[in-house]
Amino acid sequence: MSRTGTVDIVVVDDEKEMALALRDLLEAEGFRAEATTDPREALLRVREGKVRVILSDVNMPGMSGMDLVRETRRVDNSVPVLLVTAFATMDAAMEAVRAGAYHYLTKPVQIDDLLLWVRRALEEVRLRSELAGLKGADESLHSLNSVMQKVLSQVPRLAQLSSTVLVTGESGTGKERVSRALHFLSHRAEKPFVPLNCGAIPENLIESELFGHEEGAFTGAVRTQEGLFQVAGEGTLFLDEIGELPLLMQTKLLRVLQEGRFRRIGSRSELELKARVVVATNRDLAEEVRNGRFREDLYYRLKVIPIHLPPLRERVEDVVPLAIRILDRHCQRAGMPGRRLSKEAQGLLLAHRWPGNIRELGNAMERVMAFSDRDILQPEDFAFLQEESARMGGEDPLESDWPKLEELERRYVEKVLARTGGHRTRACEILGIDPKTLYRKLREG
Length: 445
Prior knowledge:
The protein is of the alpha/beta class and 445 residues long. The chain has helices at residues 16-28, 39-48, 65-75, 90-99, 111-135, 146-153, 155-158, 175-184, 206-211, 228-231, 247-259, 285-290, 296-302, 319-334, 343-351, 357-371, 383-392, 405-419, 424-431, 435-444; strands at 7-12, 33-36, 51-57, 81-85, 103-106, 165-168, 193-197, 212-213, 225-226, 236-240, 261-262, 271-272, 276-281, 305-308, 340-341, 376-377.
């Protein structure tokens, strides 16, 4: 096996021709692959941190595929191992799973099936890296806030469940990234991930958006339309800003979650809800319940699995490691030499309250990358942070993230046009406006 840098896959088979054939197949599909007849070579690559996925035969002299799975998990349990065997039995499959194999394939290997599981394994590796990004730094920095460590360590396990998840936290704390991780680390990864911002859809149209409608169910319903409950299929429906959902829709959502069934508007036939529902909000739903703006029974139904993401100001020890990681990532993407933060710049970052949380920190690092030529960044490179803080004064930090009414209206007009395939007359019927008004709104956008 030629020793290069990090590869996507190492193929292990004691039959050299088979190992090379699988390597060539994977390379033809765009993966970086290596082949070896010696499982210990693959294990060495794991120890070096130079491989993302292993594809191994089971029956090999010296070290079997099962042994390779166990040793790989002992050295680095983040590396998925796919096993291939010509002697498939249910007992063997169960043994492989218990040993920690990612999946079990049977010879002759179906190419589409193999590529599906390789891509799925690589996606899991990528998402684990994304979760590390949420945690805030290279593990060697040992600076992760203990609360955040506990939260994020639970995500891979919670991803395997089908229960409803409620993700809470201020804007910019990473709620959608965690929700996507719950999807892509689950058995639903190949199914749709369907997001909806509940605050971006007008109240009179959100029921149709979620449930769908039959042709003629209401004025403007010119054809049958699937709702997002149906579009999500066996995937994940992500309802962002659930606290913005009108009370009437809260009642209907509660019924769907309790009964696992729904009906399109205008239909008498019920459809089964197969998707997992993940919701997120930056509001205090318990407070919303006390004020009568959110149903108590829905709150407890959504709170089956709660995940709270703390704001950056409550884990200030994560600020500098996060900033370093973001800088490194931008430098790598741009093919630039790495940049460092001076002690003074680090002090400035620690003193900032970060009302926009990780999103604001990421934007700040990207802005500095664009305008500063220094290898070691200084406080003056971050002067805009102090200026922005002064401008905001005592303003509620969340308000800076709220879109203006005109922006919401523009987004909705564009969405209706997209759903009608650009048919402006049909869009006008759905929007309840005349063509002249539509053209004016498009020009203003």
